[in-house]
What does this fold into?
Amino acid sequence: MVETREFFDAFPDAQYKDEQALVPPRATDPGWAHGIMVNGGRQKIRCKYCHKVILGGGISRLKQHLAGERGNVAPCEEVPEEVKLEIQQHLGFKVLEKLKKQKGSKSSSSSLASYSQNKEEGEDDDLGREPNATTSRGANRKRKGKEVDQGTTSNRRKRHKKQEFPIAIPVSQPPTNLNFASQESINHADMVVAKFMYDSGIPFSAANSYAFQQMADAIAAVGTGYKMPSYHSLRGKLLNKSVEETGELCNDIKKSWEVTGCSVMVDKWSDKTGCTILNFVVYCPKGTLFLKSVDASDITNSSEALLGLFDTIVQEVGPKNIVNFVTDTDPSYKTAGRLLMTKYKTFFWNACGSHCIDLMLEEIGKIDEVKEVLLKAKKLTGFIYNRSWVLNLMRKRTCGREIVQLAATKFASDFLTLKTIVSLRDPLSHMFTSNAWTSSSFSKQRAGAEVAEIMVDSHFWSLCDKILKVTKPLLTVLQLTDSEERPCMGYIYDAMEKAKRSIVSAFDNKESQYMPYLKVIDPIWLEEFHSPLHAAGYYLNPSIFYNPSFSSNKVIQKGLLDCIETLEPNLTSQVKITSHISFFEDAVGDFSRPVALRGRDSLAPGLATSSSDVSKFNFPFSYFR
It folds into this structure.
């Protein structure tokens, strides 16, 4: 409001007076603050933001224009967001008050009955009922519908158009009428939603869906009397419409592969019966697309058979569209992936980052002193969690904190649990020396005595601290590879280097102490995990490259050149890219723009360098999570 008045204060006084005179005297509708009458008529109003002249409909039509409603008038493209939200809330509250005034009246009952009837007619369509149905109820409904069509269709449509307002308000904004609702009504609404979920057996995680709040906003926007979709609508026309929308989204994602490239990920699932299912998923900046599932039980140990299967996937996605092909670390899958990369020579094969970190943790767990500590930790957790009285005592001492921690992989869960045990050392030690414990029957049992002895064993705690010096940095890298916040390809190399430096530093640079662990980590990192894409991603990540601590080496330079030669087969383009690398290195040209400087740390690597030819090969590391 203030910004609008300041805008018009910039004009000459005479012009301002003329426009002020073109606002109706004693006008109280908030819409008049954003429009001006043309030629003194209320039916011809000019928007103050886009200067569009709106003919007919008066101030209501202007508010629809500002609120972004479609149907009667085109939405305003220049209206400030806060003004748009203000008008949306005003329109929503106005309709709610109107419905409240009409509650109990004949006109309101008629309107709701007509609305319910229309919903029922739409639901009957889903049942596949023939138009010539002869039931008296159907004939009645048909006659009523015919009378309405002949006499009142035009007027009814006009009334509906006048009552239109936005279907949903963004989740980040407060619901339309929340400011006008009492706490009692809000609590009642919460209980109704909760009881629906309880009665229907809906998982609580459904409340985390982005669509959950959208559903509530859409219902609130319609107002009192909205009838929820029926069973037949949900499994019929609404489902078909959702499938159609999903198909359109998938087509848009597939079209983007040609522009940005993509990564194909092979997700393997196995059960105790030996059944192996491979899920093929394609990731690109526009979104992740599930491609297909294949029962690979008969071919999972044959690299040649897997190569044939992977080849069909490559042909389906398009060899020129693929940047990275990702599998797990099983020997047959690694062999098939490398053969596939050798066959096409236009993309890279890479082992799954989470699988590689988990493999490192598995091998560390085989070291004698580590194996001993993990066995004692499992004995502790098994004893506590298999006895309800002990479990309740533990939770009381730890203020509700749990010892067992679950992660994406088995060995990550083991070391996360060990980390929690160390963090809860004091309350656990106090628990096993408390009067409640010593007076219980569990303290007299052999298993209870062994667990209590572990709690007071200083050597056990010393080994725990030593092991966590190694596993904490690796768990940090695992968290990065599993993160949904940003693609990790541009950060993997830096994260692994930091993890190894952290391990060396934790042992005070004593080679005899840290070397047994690095001898486990380095072979997996170099032979299984590392890829030229990691090196190129590290080099082309502005947040890392422009950091004073950045350092390059032969591995990074080689990886960068390998990416250029593999991902860009055109020799002329290769020369152009390599010649433009100096622009990135010296931060000149587009890389010296203020927007590029500000975005070094905040923007994803692919976006931060997309204004130059360097982005031609910068895109790969943006696609693998």
The longest strand covers residues 262-270.
